[in-house]
Structure formats: structure tokens, C-alpha cells
Amino acid sequence: LLSNGKAEFNLFRRSYPLEEAVIIGERTDRNVTRAQLGVFNMEARTIRAIAGTFGETDIIRGATLLPGIQSPGEFGSGFIVRGGSVDQNLILVEGVPLFNSSHLFGLSAAINPDAISEMTIYKTSIPARYGERIASVMDIKLGMENTKKFNLQGGIGVLNSRLSAFIPLYNDKVSLMVSGRGSYSDWILHQIPSLELKQSSAGFYDLNAMSTIKYSATGKISTFGYLSYDDFSLNGMTDYHYENRLASLRWDFLLSKKLSAGIMGGISDYHLRVIDSDDSHPEEASRINLSTNYNTLKIGLNWFPNSDHTVRFGLDGILYRNQPGNLQREGIASHIVPTELQPEKGLELAAYLSDDFAITPLLAIEAGIRVVNFRSLGPGSVFIYKPGLPMTVESISDTLYYGENDKVASYSGIEPRLSLRYILNETSSIKLGYNRMNQFINLISNSSVVSPTDAWKLSSYYLKPTVSNQVSLGYFKNFLKNTIETSIEVYYKKMDNVTEYKNGAKVLLNQHLETDLTAAQGYSYGVELLIRKNAGKLSGWISYTYSRSMHRTSETMTSGQINGNSWFPSNFDVPHNLVVNINYQPSRRWRFTGTFYFSTGRPLTLPELQYTSAGEQLVWYSDRNEYRLPAFHRLDLSITFDKSLRIKKRWKGNWTFSIINVYGRKNAYSVFYSRENPQNWNYTGSYNLSKMYILGAPLPTLTYNFSL
Q1: What's the topology of domain 30-707?
Q2: pLDDT surpasses 90 at 633
């Protein structure tokens, strides 16, 4: 005040919505009352509240904060669920699978976070309408919060920038959503103290669009398209290019007040190209191409006899076309011998029926069954091996040839699904779940982390589908008017025909791949604890998982045995996993987020001895996965400052400052041996065991987010 005076104010009431981090967007006690267990749902508001990588929310990284879900490694691509491998998770975007879920080998999720309306992940109690994978299903729905008027939002960060727009076109009946991202990440590589990485470059972009036409009060048509492209050049000698292309067309309509139907057609293409063009060795220049094509048609009916009863029936058809690899010359000076693996084709057909209803006010059930058949189709050829001998190139006795669309192999399965819920009182319940799943496509990789050159392969004459049976039991309890949720779940999963790799297996461009693969049995079990606070200035959760994942071969011939057919830890056996995620919002302007991770190190196999036999240098390896990497732990912090709080202001923006790896932990990504004297190639002394890490120092980032 500069002087005495008089001021008059007109007072009025108005409510202002706060940006609370609500974990589940349904009724607040849904975790207790629904029949399913092992299911998590996140809406857009919750997803954005999670501290992401490089200042941007990461939907994949957000999932790894939940119990039973872990990252395969720091900035690794994909995620692991209850001891399963990365390829055992089905990631759906508007009903179409995404075969590569990340940019730059795991630095960023493949989907623009501003375009996501919600994400649901199923670890168990997987509904009968889902199939194709045995570990989990992540169902991502796209859209923006405000669908009544034009909406623009985006962000500018240190790794990339993004922009999304929702455009209503005709009386709320026709709408369009478009979004895109582009990166400028080369400068990050130039900061790494490695000459090889300083001379490298990396970049990506992704675009997606979605339109909806509500042609009547009882029907709508939706279209969706997505394109992503990644380019990584290592030291100017090896270039990696990979892209995803997704599209779908969906028609939803009502047949009556209690019966609805949906028809969806979709495609998903994944392509990888690796170019090795070292100028100093042009005779070795080469190009490797891999691709996977997925076409699907799905028809579903939903019947709602009453508010507590839902019946679903549907038919699914999937046509796979897969190119597991071909090698070509790069340049006229190349002496590389071209190699092309024969293309694969497969047809998967499924029918399902599920019934979700309340038997009594206390007891609810969701029961379902899915019947599935897969056929491996020609053209192609199959090598026949002499019986009683190890499967090697030398033991090939014959070759079978198949014409176009001839049946090479056929596999069928019945997949029962069951969920039971019993209400103990107003705030607690117990649940039981069981599901059986079949998987007819696998990622061929003998590494515990996803590699750019890993190839997808269909079930075939020798490669049988992986089958899992899982049972889970859970107790759910809420406190303080459902603002605090707690749960404990225990599970046991048995797997058959798990793909394992013989010692010294060659998986890339192998025309006799079946000679290096072996089928294994597997089991995993664990207990998952969750404490979650949903409302108030202080929110977040603590999740802890204890789990084991073991494999065993049952080969009669020594060449196919691993560890003498004894049980050994799988590549994704991580006994202890702890995540603490805290969000503190002292005012409408400030929000603080902190996330702490701890997990047991991944198993690995190490060479233990180098020796000479018949003049050849050989290496003796330890038992499979006998050793482990050091424990992983990391702390990430972020601060968000909202510049504008006025409800009528069109342009709204906030700044997010984050620090990844606050205390500079050097978490091992892998390990390698090095000679004490690197120049002495005849060195016979001891070797040093060194670890390779992705991020060994605190990484600060700054992002500006805006909306209009």
C-alpha cells in the first residue's frame, strides 16, 4: 500500500479443479470391488504426474513402477512381468500391437504421452478377449482430455519436442487428433567421454493421427494411424534404422439397448535395417534387413443384461508375414556372400466367450474361454535330421518342401480364464485368478537385454508355441475413505516350450536355427506388495516384489542340455524389486516428484577360463546364469512450476526441472573382460572384469510444457 484509500470488491463463488494425481479413474474402491486382480489402470492425468526420462513422461517407464513389472535394464527397451521375457508382453495401441515399444533402444517410449488418454495393464486375470502373449497385456487408448473444443498441447525438452492437437470439426460429431515428436539428441552423445560415441548420431520422430465420426446416436467410426522412425549411427560405421507403422479402422454400433458390436481391422509393420559400411574395409560392407507384418480382423459382441452382468463374444483372425533376416552387399566393393532366410507366414484364429456377473452382492465372477489355432504356412522348406543323433547340419537326412499356403505345422489350444472376488466388508476383499495362454511368435535373442538385431520368429515345424498356466491369490484393503489402497498378491506360473539357446548358439542369419535352440520348462512365483495414497497434497505408492523365475531343459542328448538339465535362473530372474514413488503438491503452483528404484542384479554367464587346444584359443564358460550383475538402484527427482493459474487464460504453461540418477550411481548394464596389456594379443595372464554402464552421473533436464 502506498497511501490510505478505499477499494470495493464484488465477491462470487467459483470452483477451480485441481490437478490431483488420482491413480484410478473409476470408482475409488474399484480395486476392492472388481473381480479381476493383477490389473492396473492409469488415466492421462496420472501418467503425466510420473517423473519421466529427460523431462518427458514415459508410459513404459511408468508401468515399471508397479509391483511385478520391471525394466530389463537401465533405459532398456520394453519391460518384464513376473519373470517373463520382454517379448511375452502384448502392447496394444488402439487395438493394434506395437512390436518395438521404444525410441533410441529404450531412451524414450514410442508413443507421445500427450496423445494417451489411458493405459490398462493386465498381469493376471487376463480377459478372454485378449491373447497372443503369455505374460501381460498393455492396452493403450489414445485421445485428449478436452473433446468439446480445440485443444493444443506440447512440450520442449532437452531430447525432443512434441506437439498434439485435438480439432472438433462438426458439432462434436466429427473430430481429429494429431500429434508428433522430433528429437535433437546428438548433443547428448557428444557429452559422453567416449570417442566412439562422440562421433555417433541419433534421432527419431513419430507421428500419429486419430479421427472419430459419430454418424448417429448409436454408432461411430474411428480411424487411427501411427508412424515412427529411428536412426542411430555408431561411430559413422554402423547405421541402425528401424520403423513402426500402425493403422486401424473400427466401427462401433448398438444393435439394441443391451447389445453392442464392434468390428476392427488393423495392420502393424516393423522394419529394421542395419548397414555396416566401414570405409577402411569396404570389402566387408553389408546390409541386414528384418521385418514383421501383422494383419488382423476382429469382431466382438457385448451383451449387458443388467448393470452387474456383461457377456462378451468375439472372433479374431491374424495373418503374420515375417522376414527373420537377409544379408546383402553394401557397395560394389563388398565381398560379402548374400544370405536370405526363408520368409515365414502364419495364420492365427481364435474365438472367445466371457461372462462377468455378480452371483451375490458379495461374490462376483468373471469366467471365460478362448479357443485358438495357429498354422504355419508355406511356401518353405524344412530340414529333417537323422533320429538318435544331435540336430546339426551334418545330421540332415532329408528336406521337405511346401507350396504356397500349404500347412507346415498346426497347433491348437484351449485357454480358460477365471476371476473370483469375495467382499469381506466395505473396505476389503479377497480374489482368485487363473489363466492359460499360448504364444505363437517369439523374439529370438540370446541376450538378457533387447538388441537391435533381435528377430521375431513364428512357431513352426520345430519351434512349438510357448504355453503358460498362472494362478494368483490376492487380498485388497482400503483405508481412510478409499484414499489409501493396500494389496498383497501371490502367484505361481508354469511354462512349457520356453525357447532357450544352446551354448555358443548363433541366432542371427542362421539358416538352421533349430539346431541352436532347445525347448525348456519354466516356472516363476512371487509375492507383490502395494501401498498407495491417492489424494491430498502428498500422494504416491510403495511397491515391493519378491519373485523367482527358473528354467530347465529336458534333453536326452548332452549337446542340447543346459547345466545338465538342472534348474537355473532365467535371464529375467530378479528376486527383489522395490519402487518408492512420491508426489508432493504444497500448492497449485508447485509439484515435487521423487522416485527411488532398487532391484537385484540380473543373472549372467561369464567366461571362467581361456585355454589352447590343438593350437586354437578356446574359452570355458560358467554354468548358465551362475553370476549376477551388481544390484541396481537409482533416485530421480523432478520439480514442476506452473506459470499460470488463471482458469480463463488460454495459454497455460509449466516448467519441469528433473535430475535423473541424483547421486550418480554407475549401474552396470553389462560386463566384459579386458587384458591388462591391450596391445599384447598373445597375452596369457589374468584379465580385468569391467562393467559397462549407460548413465554414470547425475543428468539434469529442463522441459517446458504448454497447452492452449
Answers
A1: Maltoporin; Chain A (2.40.170)
A2: yes
